């Protein structure tokens, strides 16, 4: 099946839809768990699927270094390698190599950098990024871009955005025609509305299967991010998916969906799970805290995930504090379950035209304190 | 249901049977995965059960220090705490505190020691060990004993064994009458047949629900261990289960079963799984080895575990080398699956009176090299 996006319903700026791919359908708004090194850390792929995930994200930077894109291609591609037969989106590697302060050099051609694993030298360009993502077998390929950390001055943001737009064209040219695979462009422009608009126009002139909103969740704070999201999604075509990269906390996700975002990804639920931070209807809960030591209650009595169905807060506390792998397994599962349940709730609310009520209830719960009154 | 042992079949010294407990039946010969700190590391309990395990082992020493036996009792006992509703056997803590070289002091009363976690002072005696195992809710309680590392001189082994026999009586007295819970005595005596016989007689004079063979797998080597096992099981009652503590490699297990052992436990399959060592029909395989880097084949094409069904050697190599948790999860699962399959094979062979043929085939396979010829 070729790649397509179908809008189902709208509620204000928010919308539900479905993305069809050769490897299955993605219900939107969608949250994509991050499988950096060909694994969603501490989870088996069938467990990730059981939480409700329709698609995973893989990291080009990590995979090109270890085990290597050519090796993954020889082994039948990333899906087969990691035992996940549903859609995979790969990032371009651009964002992560730009984070290698001191270890990379940016030119018009691309980015030269040294591996954080063994110091070996590599070059990422729009052309090599497209080739690596092709070797991985990614269903949704991201254009190669770069973005400065915020705050940055306007001149820096403008120059960076225009470079990314030239790279977007080179990515499009290098991607070529690959039936069943999609290429997404990435809007840049920092917090500057006119630069965001210029970027959106440049991308649409090139033409992509979907459009990401990049350069956010890089230190600007939620207010500034929502400020951009009040305008940026509408600059992008309504009939293509809009993907907000690297977001975020549950409240960020709700706010982004309300502003017209269809797809998101973030390491937060998985990384936090490994360190004992749980996300719940009633806000975040730090299981490392000694107050849970003797608590026989589940993390969330209303949650149907294995961690909440089978274990006490005391057990989660014990295993996280003892560094036991099962603590990371259970809390990662809970967090991904919670995130997917949140997405399902958002989709139902939008379909029913009651997103405002959903948001009000979400906010009230998040501030209610983490344990139900007796 | 009260504790009982039923013999099903014998083949030479080997036997099959079943142990009935209030929490379910244990098929013997049985291998017990080790759940040191209220978790079989890197496994969910339902996954452990899916490998075929009928019973787990918990470590009194670790659990008394963290999270604490009183805390586990307040939380409903170890079964509920760790979400495992089938039988649990707990060791007495004796073996592990004796391993704390320099941090413990042995007297007639018991062992004073300092916690390896926080340096806090503790006392383990036959009486406190029975109390801790009662608080944990263990189904099979082990008498408190001590044993020297081998080699040791005869006088040391003799004195140690006699102390353990006095402690066995105190354990029996302190255990009292607990319907549905069993108490096992532990034979000591090192490699000395007459001391083993003296110990077996002393234990039977006291009377236990089962008898362990202790003081082996402490550095004496397989030949010396099998030398003891050629005689020691027959010194113990035929109508009670015989438990060989801390054993072992697959070949140790096969040899011990052939010599009349009914139960075993070992950290080897779980610990090895976390470091990339797999046990297979065709011998051990170190997945860290670079020869697996590009290998699309499963670890064992004939194995039905999730690691072998879903993943290549290349993937297992990649995740183990990258320190990804899924590598530990998959290889631990494989190893426990292999161990339980080995036990099932042994039980079938004994029931069919063809253990010798099973052993010959086991030996031939173990030495065949780890990949089937094309």
Describe this structure in words.
The structure is a homodimer of 374-residue chains. With 374 residues, the first copy, chain A, is α/β, with parallel strands linked by helices. Chain A folds into two domains: 4-266, Alpha-Beta Barrel (TIM Barrel), CATH 3.20.20; 273-366, no CATH class. Chain A contains 15 helices and 16 strands. Chain A has helices at residues 45-50, 60-65, 69-74, 78-82, 94-98, 126-136, 154-175, 193-206, 222-229, 250-258, 268-275, 306-310, 313-321, 325-351, 355-366, and strands spanning 4-11, 14-21, 24-28, 30-33, 56-58, 88-90, 104-106, 111-114, 121-124, 140-142, 182-187, 210-213, 242-244, 263-266, 277-280, 283-286. An eight-stranded parallel beta sheet of chain A has the order 4-14-13-12-11-10-6-5. A three-stranded antiparallel beta sheet of chain A has the order 1-2-3. The first copy, chain A, has a three-stranded antiparallel beta sheet with strand order 7-8-9. The mean pLDDT of chain A is 96. Chain A binds chain B through residues 37-39, 41-45, 66-67, 71, 74-76, 81-83, 293-294, 296, 306, 310-312, 314-315, 318-319, 321-322, 324-326, 328-330, and chain B through 37-39, 41-45, 66-67, 71, 74-76, 81-83, 293-294, 296, 306, 310-312, 314-315, 318-319, 321-322, 324-326, 328-330.
């Amino acid at each position: 099946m070729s790649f397509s996006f179908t809008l189902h319903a709208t509620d204000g700026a928010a919308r539900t839809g479905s993305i069809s791919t050769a490897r299955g359908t993605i219900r939107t708004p969608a949250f994509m768990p991050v499988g950096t090194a060909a694994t969603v850390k501490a989870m088996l792929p069938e467990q990730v699927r059981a939480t409700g995930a329709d698609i995973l994200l893989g990291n080009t930077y990590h995979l090109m270094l270890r085990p290597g894109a050519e090796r993954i291609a020889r082994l039948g591609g990333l899906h087969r390698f990691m035992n996940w037969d549903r859609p995979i989106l790969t990032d371009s590697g651009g964002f992560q190599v730009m984070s290698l302060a001191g270890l990379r050099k940016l030119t018009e051609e691309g980015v030269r950098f040294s591996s954080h694993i063994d110091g070996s030298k590599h070059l990422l360009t729009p052309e090599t990024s497209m080739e690596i993502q092709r070797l991985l077998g990614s269903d949704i390929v991201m254009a190669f871009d770069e973005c400065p950390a915020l705050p940055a001055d306007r001149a820096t943001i403008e120059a960076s955005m225009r470079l990314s737009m030239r790279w977007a064209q080179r990515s499009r040219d290098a991607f070529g025609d690959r039936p069943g695979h999609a290429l997404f462009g990435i809007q840049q422009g920092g917090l500057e509305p006119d630069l965001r608009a210029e970027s959106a126009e440049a991308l649409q002139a090139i033409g992509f299967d979907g459009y990401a909103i990049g350069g956010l969740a890089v230190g600007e704070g939620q207010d500034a991010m929502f400020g951009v999201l009040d305008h940026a999604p509408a600059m992008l075509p309504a009939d293509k998916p809009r993907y907000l990269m690297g977001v975020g906390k549950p409240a960020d996700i709700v706010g982004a969906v309300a502003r017209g975002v269809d797809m998101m990804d973030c390491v937060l639920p998985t990384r936090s799970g490994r360190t004992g931070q749980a996300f719940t209807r009633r806000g975040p809960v730090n299981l490392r805290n000694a107050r849970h030591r003797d608590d026989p209650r589940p993390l969330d009595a209303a949650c149907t995930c294995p961690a909440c169905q089978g274990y006490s807060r005391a057990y989660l506390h014990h295993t996280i504090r003892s560094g036991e792998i099962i603590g990371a397994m259970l809390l990662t599962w809970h967090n991904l379950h919670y995130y997917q349940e949140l997405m399902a709730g958002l989709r139902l609310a939008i379909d029913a035209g009651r997103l405002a009520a959903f948001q009000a209830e979400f906010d009230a719960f998040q501030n209610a304190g983490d344990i139900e009154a007796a």
